[in-house]
Here is the input.
Amino acid sequence: MTLLKGAALIAIAAGLAGCVDNKDDKTVDRGIDSKHLSELKAGVWIDPTGCDHWIIDDGAEGYLSQRLDKYGKPVCSGAAPPNTAIGPYKSGSVIGDPI
Amino acid sequence: MVTGISKVFRGGLAMVAATLIALGATFGSTGAAEAQQGVQREYIGESYIPTIWVDPDGCEHWVMDDGWEGYMTPHVTRQGIPVCRRGNACAVMNSDQLFPTNSYQISANGRAMLQQFFQSARATSYIIAGHTDSRASDDYNMRLSVNRANAVAAVAQASGARIADVRGYGERMPRASNGSAMGMAQNRRVEIICIR
Here is the structure.
């Protein structure tokens, strides 16, 4: 029963995320929150060292990428304490986190 | 015993490699031969072509969604410099307006100018980077530029600004040619990067 529920959940999640077959075009998100990836909305995650990363919670997918200054060095803005995420990083997708 | 295991392990690896190569040969689309710089190179891979996401600073990141997972990494040059669509330096201070030659003591006028700037800029924090022209030794210029950047940072902190980093690049990052007096004057500068 539990197994069945789990399988059903995964099937629903797969349907929602639009990821049933091999996806050739890696530049778009499919399903309910479909869009081109240039439209992602980011917040800032501050790592344990205190340096900034762009964080995006886009429904089924999560993205994290370093914030760098024009010299290629990490940006450590001090906008919030380490191990904190701030800003609108969950605002780009209507799909919430199940857990 | 250890060598025995290692041999078995190696044998296993060789078998996996052989299988992969065979697979590559069967499915020509995934295992392609590529002519690059005149050298034929065999590889087994899948096409992952990214698109570009531009962060709030205006800098590019490679981004991909393969259906289940999302991937992202900064777009940098081979020298490690980010590729950006707009600069994020919010002020470039001419060193001649702040300091006497060879000095890192800020003039009264310079101090007033900096105070006014930091009170109006209202950024989350600032990165201060000092630069010089190419006269005098590299070593001397590295020291002078970091001393000047520190002097600017001290004014910023006294004005209530948060400083994220202070650096001196000496003569190593010129923005103009050091071949003319005008170019050298442009290179003598303190850059202030505003982090929003």
In short: Chain B has three domains: 1-47, 48-86, 89-195. The beta strands of chain B are 33-36, 39-42, 51-54, 60-65, 70-74, 89-94, 125-131, 163-168, 189-195. Residues 1-35 of chain B have pLDDT under 50 and may be disordered. Residues 128 and 192 of chain B are 5 Å apart (CA to CA).
